[in-house]
Amino acid sequence: MPAPAPTRDPNPIARRQLNLATTHQLRRAGVAAGTISRRTRPGGPWQRPLPRVCLLQTGPPDPRQRALAAVLYAAPADAEPLSGAGAVLTGGAALALLGIRDAPATPVDVLVRAPRTLRATGYVRPMPTSRWPVTMSVDGIPVTRPVRAAADYALRATDPDQVRSVLANTVQSGWVHPHDLHAELRAARALNRPATRAAATELLVGVRSIAEGRARDALAASDLPPPLWNARLYTPDGTFLATPDAYWPDEGVALEVDSAEYHYTRDSWHATLLRCLRLESHGVLVASATPSMLRDAPALIVEALRTLLTLTTTRPTPLTIHARGHTQLQLPLLSP
Predict the structure, then answer these.
(1) What confidence tens digit (pLDDT) does each residue in 17-58 have?
(2) Angle at which helices 194-204 and 210-220 pack, to 10 degrees?
(3) pTM of the prediction?
(4) Could you report how far apart the first and last alpha carbons of the chain are, in Å?
(5) What gap in Å lies between CA 24 and CA 45, rounded to an integer?
């Protein structure tokens, strides 16, 4: 049976691919090479955001289109580009697509199957790999699972603070468990990088933000006993109280790191004060600080905590609050 004649309408491809198409797809749809060249000239109705990729519109691409264009550029010509079988979005761009705070949308890292190699161009950084991941689709774009995207991001990121923040936000968002992330970072050999190893260690002991990481740095450099990080506190009857950033269960002392960025509304600030009042009403002594205080005056915070920890030694009545859902891990952890 003869093969059906190809359609000459590129619109079905564009609708399925965020108004994008490869030149190979357009040729298969019957669009002549001369037509593609003419329409993608300056001032024409189409654009070429990347080699072999056409954007079938005059306006600039949005972040999703830029991400998908990178996948289309990296996918083999004979493969279905949306299948995730030949090219898939990973790293910061994949995390940004999932809404992970602080994850950089560019440069765009795309996995390709080793031993195939591809030249980096524009904002695209191909990453050959023999460990092909399980893939998923986000807004029609093939991406790696968040745990793999975070590990691939950590392999190439250069800013230690951003690595700390992005990994913490990936865990905090609920996309990945800290132990699974640690295992993926080990498999990717990203733990060989000191900044990544430090960030992964913090997540295993319960740290969930860059501000908490700075708090942990300040406490680790002091002689204060180690706290539990993000422990969930309950009354004896099972009523949930709060999840302070750091908590010393034997002394009933908590550290709360409150950022104005998250409390700029009256309701948010009101909720923060209520949380502190709930803790204090059950005998917990609370020290509050902002991220900028942790950066600029860590010694002052340590001394305030030292005073509160000392005050608890004379308490006539022991605390009845219970911390659940977290076990303090011993440090240092094994190196990769």
Answers:
(1) 999 999 999 999 999 999 999 999 999 999 999 999 999 999
(2) 90
(3) 0.70
(4) 58
(5) 19
Count of other CB atoms within 10 angstroms of residue 265: 9
Domain 211-324 belongs in CATH node 3.30.1330: no
Q: Report the range out of 58-62, 242-246, 267-271, 290-294 with the highest average pLDDT.
A: 58-62
What is the distance between the alpha carbons of residues 53 and 192, in angstroms, rounded to a whole number? 36
Q: Which residue has the higher pLDDT, 137 or 312?
A: 137
**How large is the angle between the packed helices 160-172 and 194-204, nearest 10 degrees?**
30
**Per-domain residue ranges of the chain:** 1-61, 63-204, 211-324
d(CA 36, CA 40): 6
- Cα–Cα distance measured from residue 71 to residue 87, given in angstroms and rounded to the nearest whole number: 6
pLDDT at 9: 59
E strands, the chain, are: 20-22, 47-50, 53-55, 87-90, 108-113, 124-129, 135-138, 141-144, 228-229, 232-234, 240-242, 246-248, 253-257, 285-289, 322-324
Give CA–CA dist 9/32, Å, rounded. 12
**56 close to 10: Cβ distance less than 8 angstroms:** yes
Looking only at the bridges linking them, the beta strands covering 108-113 and 124-129 are: parallel
Residues 6+ apart with CB under 8 A from 332: 201
